Amino acid sequence: MKQCRHQPVAQGFTLIELMVSMLLGAFLVGGVVGVYIANSKTNQVNEQMAQVQQASQISFQLLGRDAQHAGYSGCANITPTQVVNMLTPLPWWANWVGGLQGFESAAPNFGGSAIAPLPNTDSLHLMYGRGVSSTVVSHNALAPVPMVINENLGGIITNDILMGCDSKMAVIFRATGVTGNSITHAVGGVVPGNSALTFGIAPDGTRYQRNLANDVGTVMPLESAAWFVGTQNGIHSLYRVALLAGSIQTEEVVQNVENLQLEYLEQGANAYVPANMVANWDRVMSIRATLTLADDPKMPLALGMRQISQVINLRNRRQTL
Asked: What is the DSSP secondary structure assignment for residue 2, as one 8-state letter?
């Protein structure tokens, strides 16, 4: 008689086991997705932080270059009262206040009618002799060729605004013609033009006929630059406006800048103060600049992560006792 053998019956997972497995799988997938999202956000934050660092580095490098040259005239110990300004009408970019002047909210419209400083932000105007100075070989303001220099080292061209100086004084004027090493500075012409040929200035402020001294006098192009936060096409940016060939040119340095705050340290003081509390711009020794970049609504950053400060020490400042 044959015996029947029972074949083993394959058993599947129970419903509970399937539910537990699915739950564990969901936890695992959720963990992986969470790690991916966290890493993605971290990468985005790191990328945004790198952009902040790069933007601030570029801004402070260029601003620092202007600030460290501020006040340089080519001659030592020139005070604002010893600077004769021949230009008329006198524009903001030719107003010499020791080569440095800061503004709170009431700043000039540096960029013209198209770009104005953003309210509640600070701005800064810096002036200095740019490049390499040339020695004055001869100067007679009333002669047909009033000025001859040894070599045009500064690349001076017609209509450039120049700064000349010697041991007694400095003068800001427009070159109305440049031929080789000869420079003319006639009255009138392009606005602002030279108002007169009285290059001298007396202690009481009276102007008189005077020439730059031969061999000790120097001349170079004038650099005049302003830094401010302005708005164009709905975008806040850090702007630099600068003098080029006798006219002002506007340059966008960094986009998406929300604020620029500036504080100043005067000689002998122990605290930085805003522009409206500076007693004497000729005694400012350093600037503390704080740049704030705009927040990205898609990836918000804390204010402290978008705000970077730097101290800029000035070189061409008069040390007084």
From this structure: P
- For residue 271, give every residue at least 6 positions away whose Cβ sits within 8 Å of its Cβ, in sequence order, or none: 265
Single out the residue of 99, 78, 76, 317 nearest to residue 201, CA to CA. 78
- pLDDT tens digit string along 5-52? 555 555 666 777 677 777 777 777 766 666 656 555 555 555 655 565
What is the DSSP track for 38-77? HHHHHHHHHHHHHHHHHHHHHHHHHHHHHHHHTT--SSSS
* N residues, the chain: 321
Tokens of 281: 């711009």
Question: Cα(229)–Cα(252) distance, rounded to whole angstroms?
Answer: 10
Query: Rounded distance, CA 115 to CA 61, Å?
Result: 23
Give Cα 139 distance to the centre of its chain: 35
Tell me the three-class secondary structure of 254-275, residue by residue. Answer: EECEEEEEEEEEECCCCCCECH
Residue 192, preceding peptide bond in cis (omega within 30° of 0) = yes
Ranges assigned E (strand) in the chain: 83-85, 87-88, 100-103, 123-129, 134-139, 147-149, 161-165, 170-174, 177-179, 182-184, 193-194, 200-201, 207-208, 218-232, 235-244, 247-255, 257-266, 284-293, 307-313
